[in-house]
Protein 1
Amino acid sequence: MKKQGKYLLMLSLFVCLFFLSCKQTDKLYVAVSPDYAPYEFVNLNESGQDQYVGADIDFAHYLAQQMEKELVIEAMGFTEALASVQNGRVDLAISGFTYSSDRAKNYEMSQSYYDDGDGDQVVIVLKENQDKYSTFEALNKKEVRIGVQDGSVQADYANEQLPDATKEKIATINDGILWLKEKKIDAMAIASNAAEVVMTTNPEIVICDEKFDVTGKTGLFALAKKGDKELIAEVNAIIDEVKEQGLYETWLTQAQELYVQLGEAAVEGIVDDAPFIVRIWKMFVNHFGDFMKGLGITLALSLLGVLFAAVFGTLLCLMNISKVRLLRWISTAYIEIIRGIPLLLQLTVIFLLMPKGMSKFITCVIALVINSSAYQAEIFRSGIQSVDQGQMEAARSLGLSYPKAMFKVILPQAIKNTLPSLANEFVSLIKETSLSSTFYVGDLMTVKSIITSTTYDSLTPYVIIAIIYFIITFSLSKLIRWWEKKGATA
């Protein structure tokens, strides 16, 4: 008993030290959504924190330097960036945020660190429709579909100034560009600088003649948690220096040039009118290292998730078949709740609940363990029930206690019976890891998002990743069936 207490104390101490280590005050945590060139995007030629580039990233580096802190970029989706700063998961959110009354109400907003004038929010259309949609009068019709990023200020402007048009919500700017090119939408609301960068690699896209009226609402702002006035005051003092020296304009020019270079390199050797199979092969060759790195992270997430979930799932299973009613109730409630909530929702909530500085990779593993353990608990329960009841009776008659009989006689047989099901759970988990791309953890789907952001080609990387997923899961499934047949004949 003393030994168990000692281990429990050591475990508690380790957990406390781990969470305390995450809360480091000498670091500046900044949330960005790196799909909004030239403000923030990803350079696949770099790795780690260096892969995040753009004018806003340079601004964040300057802030950290002046504050004498180490910058930690937390890449995630646009809405997740807003949520993470609101609950204190990060210190600041810097992702091309413009002014809105709702943001001013729910966040501490810095002064504008960059203002490019009253025409900085525009609508883009295909060049072939330029005359058709040259005015807001032509755009403001129910049959006109306008793409707006969910939670963005462009969505607010579109709702206010184009109330009759049909709004199509998009997850990222890149998705909106693709929808526009594929004619799934007729127009898209976007910042003018971002539109100009888009047009450098997409000559078939143009800016409408009429622009949104944003008088008094222009500029880009950093966001902090409501009430964190001291941090915003420090940020505002540094912004004064940035404006005085004209630094942001320099960063923006450099970012635009880098983005164009990356776009040209990403499509090197890929001819627009080349057969689709050729485009697939060329893109795969150009980004082979990126795809393999993404595959490695996908497999690592899946393997760690299924292994730790097996341990936790076994514990839940034993609680479920326990004679103690409270343990059975806790296990049943956990299993039913987790299986009844979508994995993406679990992943998002767990990410927001984790302390500042927690590795996104570890956070995703924890989410996968929590989710998979509920399913594995039921797998183990079925495995235990498949063992003949006489095995337990025989073990007890030989003098073994219930716990010893369970661990030495029943569980080994149950695990053997459930191995094929556990292997199938691993295959399922490989596909479920794709949801972690919301937080740019580096898996295959993250690689797809990054490639799309520079090439504006979504279909080709989707096909490549689908083929990779199929090869891995199909091979594992065949291996599992061979294993089952071998076990049946043994």
Note: The two ends are 42 Å apart (CA to CA).
Protein 2
Amino acid sequence: MYSEWRSLQLVVQSDQGHLSVLHSYPTSVGTEVANAVVKPLGTAVSPVATENILKTDKEVKWTMEVLCYGLTLPLEGDTVKLCVDVYTDWMMALVSPRDSMPQPVVKEPNMYVQTILRHLYNVFVPRPEQHSLNHIRLCQQVLTAVQKLARESVSMARETWEVLLLFLLRINDT
């Protein structure tokens, strides 16, 4: 598909930014960790949330490893949906930051959004149940958030634009 774009072919096909450290552990470990961590975050992204439970850069980065893994889980249950909710909320730090977002994400939104986009690729990876209505809704939710980010962000760095464009290329190559 990218034969005429030789310089991008390796970048698109060899990027491993969508993998979590939890992929090194047995599936049951990653699943338990993701389920336990994501549920409290789901309430933190609700419209009435006033404060986020994540305070430090270290906490946010560790949580993002878990969210990344959570996006690879089967679609039954609510873990994948909650991961998508959290990430699409945090992406909006480049559009309209809110107090309910983790402060490290608000302070360095470009860095975090780049990682979020790499992780959100996992939503588009084909699954056995890929034609489910739930999967389609999750993909639409991500694409709507990416569209809003591209249209409304006034502080998106060049590097973030590049990651966004690579994200779009990669999801079309799955």
Note: Residues 26-172 form one domain.
Protein 3
Amino acid sequence: MAKRRYGQILGVWLGSLLAIYLMGSVSARFHLPELTRELLIEVFMVIFIVGVNRYGVHGHLYWRPDVSVREQLRVNTFPLFIIGLGLLTSWVAPWSARTGYAIGLAALAGLVAVFEETLFRGIILGSLLTGLSQQRHGVLWAVGLSSLLFSLSHAINLTHQSAAVTAVQVLGTFAMGLLLAVSYLQTRSLIWPMAFHALFDFSGFLRLGLTTGANPQTPLAVELVSVGVAGCWALCLLRPNQQRRVLARFMTEKNTQTTGKGV
């Protein structure tokens, strides 16, 4: 059963990467405007991952938070600070995007967030959480492994950017993956990580454009520090007693097969 579960996780992950690559190759033949092309790819990927989950892996996705608004804000304090800082620097920095184009960028960021959070936090993290629930520190392993797959996925950007920039992006996305995973586990709602992811990508699009996945001026050491800080945040919010609480909240719903909060 364990081998089947992990094989399924790898299959969904690699299948998604292949779908992205094929869609990119096919759409490039039509010489569409860059933003239009990216929007079409992400619309397809959202449909793809929803279909894979509905008719294939049957991952249990959670949308409605099961904690108070105050608790949701408390456990998301650090991500809220990071996103706020990113948006502030985006609006302060000079950019020439027209209003219509900015709306397109926002739509793209939202689509990317829906696809990637459904895949990495909803399906992969959820499946790892179930598979590792009996292991010591299984919650931490699930968070770390899902974040690793999330970060390694961005190595596909080597097709259009340098290895140095890609390395910075891979480290940065690993740190972000830790924060998003903790947000999902502590709120039991994909809405929070989706919102964070969309806002983070939108601010990046405004500052760096569509073709650059990371700021080429960012030293690798800075991203290493960000990984350390995100790791400390994850360890702080996922202490042993919190890990048991997470498992109780996620596993109980799956085992009883109830409807309502889980979809």
Note: The longest helix spans residues 99-131.
Protein 4
Amino acid sequence: MNDAGKILNTHTALIFDLDGTLINTEPDIRRALNDALKQCGFEPMPAQMPVPNMHATLGDIVSAVMESQRIPAAAMPDLLDAYANYYRDNGHVDAQLYPGVLAFLNKQQQRGCVMAVCTNKIRKDALRVLAHCEILPFFGSVVGGDTAVHPKPHPAPLLQVLQEISRVPQEAVFVGDTYVDALCASQVNMDFVHHEAGYGGEKVFEYPASARFMSYRDLLQV
């Protein structure tokens, strides 16, 4: 078992980011963005362009796409509405758990670990994709970007999760893929474990992590 596995197995609570940490949601988000752009009369994102700001709120993602496409700011409300309508009905077609996630969650549940999700995704969308991937019952709390008074990296969402699962920072680990997750964890003095196969890019390596791992399958090895 690697260092990440040892750290995760010695805490009584695990808190996960969602997009890029538990589930690969980028294809669905890209498709919803392109549909919204089309519905509002704009060109789709270039195929080679990564979805920007995957660590942030939907508004931040759409704003970054608008800037890259030179779309007037006045189009924001219509784009957000079009995105929400598409994502509600078609948002989880291609969403997939990262390899090993289900086995890892089962293992943690069997040892009595409390688990939760802290994401910048809108909470209702987070609940839908967790249910679609059949892992929602594992989590005692799901806090979204619209749940707390501020989204990550502000500590408020993580503090709300801790309150809902009746844990203190020293009892928990935050598992995430971006610098936003790392910064959020550091602000509440919580261990951060980095999922390197997510959407974090290079910036996340500028922030401290208690451990890093590439695959959940590595965490299952004894």
Note: The CA atoms of residues 185 and 192 lie 6 Å apart.
